[in-house]
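Tutorial, part two.
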Amino acid sequence: MAARIPVTPLSLAFTLAGAALVPDEAEACRPPLCDGDYGLEAVDPVNADAIPIDGVLALKTAGTVDLASIQWTVTRDGQPVDGALEKPEVPDILLWRPAQPLTPGPHQVTGMVVNSDEDPDDCVPDMLALDFEFLVEAEPSAPLAAPTIDVQETVSVKEVVALDGLVCCDGAMPSDNGLDCGPADPSIFWSEGHCQPTRGAGTLRAKFSVTTGLPAATDALVTRQLVVDGAPYDQPRLGVSPLFVSTQPFCTEVVLRNLATGETLTTPQQCHGADVADQLGDQPIDPGPGLAAVCSGAAYTCAILDDVVPRWDPAQCTEWPPTDDPTGGTTGDPGDTGDTTGAPDDSTGDPGGDTGGDTGGGQDGAGDKGCGCDTDDSPPGALLALAGIGLVLHRRRRP
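Running the prediction step on this input gives:
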């Protein structure tokens, strides 16, 4: 029978305070300061060094494109060249497409971007001057041909931090605020103690380097788009190597497209990951070594309490690793704080724990911090206040 771990008022106070202090969505996942549609911050030519006579001028943009805000003129030897700006389905790219095939030689671009005046944070300039040249070659675009594709594949295991996949010690009681804003602000947190995951996700990372073998003027206008298991992945990209990460084997093709002529080419299918399939997907992780390095008290797991904020239930905790002792005893020595495989002594049947002595594993005389923490005679209100301070100062502490 697995041993039941006692829970003291202090550990319960930390759990209740954790639920009360979870940040709301606006605070936890607030967008960056300059995340509005305020206009263009920069416009830079991509292929100004060489453009085929049947080509287009590609522009790299930063910000939000509003074609109506751009004043644009192209001239050749002082004479206007007719054409129009357009937004292709390529992220951060703007195109100028001439109405007729271009004349070889240098061309001049002048103009201005007038951004919205509704920019409270000065994220983009009020006006952005445009003044540069581009050179047109005497040759048209070269036809697409089968490219050379070099694939760099890497297998790795990433820890999965979830309430049902943790082992903890020293009073940690994980909660889930449901607002995962990235590694810097995860949804799973605990206010004290330490936790280690018991499972991970094996992933295959494939980066595709596509060499078209085309002249530079044509290659600069060719997008790459990855197709995974028959479905387009992401949007076509200009000058960016496709990248795909998966927890299972997959097959890919690469679609090339000339933005000027519309010509496309799809490469033969390649499959990835069959030889490492056993390393992908759910993977067990032994939390023992990590816990042994940081824990003062015994390790444990707890049932999940499905509350407003899902969290571990301090009233339903068992030792880790679990034991099957028919006498109901425990395998750990509560006086040995260096052993993370045992469980605190529950032979007294007192759910509040023994508050009369120090087992040697606590801090500042607080006693052993396994799942239960020894306490003094402080009133419950003071304990909740202390718990709140702990959550604010230590949103999530991991080894």
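The CA atoms of residues 9 and 43 lie 61 Å apart. In part three we will examine how such features are distributed along the chain.
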